[in-house]
Amino acid sequence: MKICTIAAILLGNVILQSALLPFLQIVGIQPDTLLILTTCFALLGGGNAGMLAGFFGGLLQDVLYGHSIGVNALQYMIIGYLIGLLYDKVFVDKIFVPLFVVFIGSLLRGMMMMLYLYFNRAGMPMYFGFARVIVPEALYTAVFMPLIFRWMSLLYQQRFMSRKWHFRRI
Amino acid sequence: MLPQFFKRKPLAVAIFLAVLLSVLAIVTSGQRVKLTALEGAVGEVVTPVQGFMYRIATSVSKLFRSIGERRQLTAKYEELKDRVAQLEQQQLKMDETVRENERLRTLLDFKEDRDLFTVTGVRITGKDPGNWFNTLTADKGSKDGITVNMAVVTDKGLIGRVTDVGSHWSKVRTIVDGQSSVSALIERTRDNGMVKGNNTLTFEDGLCQMINLPLDSDVVIGDRIITSGLDGIFPKGINIGEVMEVSSEKRETYKTAIVKPDADFLRIEEVLVIRRVNE
After folding, report:
1. Portion 83-122 of B in contact with A at CB < 8 A
2. What is the predicted ipTM?
């Protein structure tokens, strides 16, 4: 049940992100909702949940849009893992904390993307990347954070979600 | 076994997955003729739903745009009337030239040299969700005759080329993507060059650049740019866009022009997939 819910959320996200969000662009930038979801899963469900959500969400993007499989998956997975380290260590009741975390996460992902593009000979000047893409994207993403985080906290109050991540022992 | 390991040593699992993904990224980064079955299947499921959502979103965005446009209609009307008169005159001249051309062509026994061939029309179903790439997905694939490296165009001009195909869906890389390059020439001066996507320019205004223009080229602002067909991928003579700015820096052995593509990459709906006749 839990896994199905997470899978449905990730699948729904990739569809909305590619079909709907391009029309909500401000100065050519759209919010990164997968990063928001990865952050939510990591803060509410722990590092493993965040890591796996990032892994599968990113993989879905790679398969549907990327040319080389694994680029997005790797980045989101790393971010999910890192944010998961904060699980149970920070208070997420005040919305300011997740907001700050997602902002930093977005900056981090932007930097990883710059690195990837640089090695693919499609790089751009550092200052330009930050001023024109990374920082605006992080801000726009942070704006969407409270709403989605609220929904995700409600989801995590459901009984089937509150069970800890668990595999059957063989 | 493994699950317990996963619980106790998440870092090890993370590192393992990271290495796996890096290898996968390297392996899949080359040219691929067909997607793997798994990739194809994901697309089959997602593309139709996505296409539906995309169509709703475009129509809503169109509605908002049309409200704004209604205000400027009268001014636009006057402008267009003048333009029609102008064009009618041009048309007359053109007709004359075409007839002359036909006559000369039969005289020379010239073979009609149209190397464009439409494979199929496709509908765009979605855009790359991030802010870093410019790729699209379309709702037809290898079952409709689409193969990798076919050109994608609209009535306005070149959009890009197909990079991956599933059986009922495909991925398109647009010409403003940072990893795209197209052999092109300037229609007036016949100078050859390369139209390359450039992330910096794309963010400015959806522009791209034409590099490797010869230093003695007298390209000016407003010149039309078309494909040259020299890359063996795009057919010759497809409209790309017009020159916005020309720069030639000292020490550089080539000129560079900034190009505004004619196609509107923000609002693409239906496009044509074309191939060269000789393939």
Report:
1. none
2. 0.73
